[in-house]
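Hi team,

Filling in the usual template for the complex we talked about on Friday. All components are listed, including any nucleic acid strands or ligand strings, so the model treats them as one assembly.

SUBMITTER: L.P.
PURPOSE: interface mapping
COMPONENTS: two
RESIDUES: 853
SEQUENCES:
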Amino acid sequence: MGRPVKVENIVLWLCVACVAIAGLAPIAVMAVESVRHNGQFSLDYYRELISAAPFWPLLGNSIRLALATTAVCGFIGVPAGILFAKSDLPLRSGFMWLLTVPFVLPPYFVALGWARVVARIGTITSDWLFGFGGCVLVLSSVFLPITMLLTFTSILNVDRRLEEAARLTSGWPGVLRRVTLPLSAPGIVFSLVLVFLLAMGELSVPSFLRYPTLPVLSFTQFAASYNFGAATAAAVPLAAIAFVGVFAESAFIRDRDYTFRSTGQTLFVSLRHWKTPLATLMAALCFALVILPLSALFATAFSPPAMHEAMQRAGASVVRSVMYSAVAATILMALGFLLGHFMRGGRQRILSALTLALFAIPGTVLSIGLVRLWNTPGTWFIYATPALLILGYTAQYCAVTTRLSLAGLMLIPTSLDEAARLSGAMWARRLFRISIPLSTRTLVCAWLAGYILCLRDVPIALMTAPPGGDPLPARILTLMANGAPPMIASLCLIMAIASLIPLVILARVIPSRGIIE
Amino acid sequence: MRNSVAVLLTVALIPILASCRPTSSRTVVVYVSEDQVFSEPILKDFERETGITVKSVFDTEESKSTGVTNRLIAEKDNPQADVYWANEPVRADALKQRGVSTPYVSPSAEGIADQFKDPDHYWTGFSARARLLLVNARSTIKPASVMAYTDPSANGRAAIANPLFGTTTDYVAALFTMWSNERAGTFMNDMKKNGVKVTTSNGESADFVATGQVDFSLVDSDDAVNRKKQGKPIEIVYPDQDPNGLGVLILPNAVALIKGGPHAENGKRLIDYLLSKDTERKLAFADCAQIPLHSGVETPPEVRRIEDIKTMRVSYADLARKMDEIQPFLKEWAGQ
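RESULT (copied from the run log):
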């Protein structure tokens, strides 16, 4: 007689199956496709890619862009996160959420805003924007919140008792350098790896700002040539770099205690006479990175004719965007919570690497695989419906909701679960009676994060939406060809409103911090 | 036990559900290469007038109007679309060559010259664009022919969209068809030596001219009229109009019925609608300012009548074949 199969194991394998169907299967199909030519094994696509003149320059451009963006985000985002978490900076909460705004919008919005700014200045700035410099500026604005918020969260989770002990023998600079930052390092490194990978895989900004990178080449191979093999070959270096990034991060945190043990309160530094200069600096940063480009973008959005046309053009795509994102966010929330639950139970390494690798793989690559896998007569109910889009969102973003859920679950004392288990409560009962009720805020945060990420997504929306079912970010992009600038601005405004509502809710759900002076 | 039966039943039902694909009689699926901003209002009008819901897939600027063509080719064994609205006939002809489309003689096509129709009725042209020279009004260079690209006075002062994509491919293929391969190849290489700026799209070329970054560029008539309406300092030149000149390349929209599409009858109704004089009038008055191919259609002043233009006499099927033939040359020329 064999061992009885536990319900939790069945659920775990179902969750893994979901991730595999949504993300791993398409990637596997692509990998096979790229080594087949005319029905036979062949490395021709790779040979052609590597021998083609633009491959190495494009790979170089992608890496250069990702490194520069990561450096800028680290240079600004980490100090900003420390300042917001550990200081009495005036208006810090307002600054933090304002700097987060570009992240919840489709990345090309900021690029479009800067294009409007430089159009008023002249051709010299235009030459600079439409190239490497402009791409770094835009991507840094968009991804800065990742380093800022993860630094902020990591620092808040440092046990204040350690800092208090250190304060007995050292001043604040020493405490930050020797205690706070080393204990926050895994979170900060994770944020930098994320920024690097996201910048590597970004499509819409380099494409709009005419900076040639590998994702642009991969998308062109797919969209202009519908050459799956060549598109996959062009994407493989990106996927390989993504995997290297994930394993580097994984190796870095291997021997570190990366758990969340927030006491709910943190010590903080009084800035004294530095308050005003630092607040002014932060205000200037908010103006330069957020207010200037977005106000330029929305400047023409409020004219009644433009707004009227935009409403007509956007129409059902706004509703569709919200619906797709809400459905995907619900799936992501449930999947992330269950995966987080299992990861807490000791299955962390493999699940973490799996989901993070899918997050790091460019959306274009994942979409290509999804189209290739599901475009068959027997699977029309996936291919010809929004299900394909939802699968793409699920595969790409389950790492985020999984990590958020894990972070929230770490705050629940394990003794509760153990006591229930000793009382004879089954796994499902413990899940529904203990873990879920105590994780309400975590679940809301995970749902909102999933919703925001799906709503702002461009590559998956563009390549997997069914006929007549395009979400708003994809629709704006297709309307930009010869669309009147005021109408485009109004469409962007509608999209921004749809994105900012959940951000406002998120700001209210997440307390800025529990401070003790 | 009951749970296991439920799971087995669900698994067994999947193939049955898969075979029950809904084919609503009030729907038509159309893949569109024409800019969404111009094509969507026409499709909305069709919806309003017929009550048939139109489900569309539009091309992005990045895919250079070949994305949906290739999607149609990839979906050949599992067609999702009923109609393809191409922004030029060469792509529609490519679908014919690959067995993706099927013949249809629309009653609305009567009155459109045979030059703009497929002889076997696999596609029909309507509302055309022309390939024009857009010139900055402050420029000292006043080109009257595409040969200006190789003139030393235009060194570094001209732009052209990447010839690997879109209507620029058509134009280059037309040169290779009208001239010999050798002459056209020499022209392209001379253009490159003369420092032509290669842009990502005709829209970008038009912006370069409008902002004075270059003096002139070959663009589509809709890009030209669009910049003119925006009040940009530009002039529009119909090139090579002298009696021995090449003439202007005319690129009509083309519409094709997809073989095995799920809503063929609705597809035919949409094709009839697109080929009507009323649609041509709307597209002439829209910002794309397209040239009607039916005679007697009302047009705005900025839209020249087709009979007033010296056009290139090329077969679009020849263009399609030539495009395939010159791909290696173009890839090398564009450095890709």
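MY TAKE: The domain at 55-299 of chain A is CATH 1.10.3720.10 (MetI-like fold). The two ends of chain A are 62 Å apart (CA to CA).

Thanks, L.
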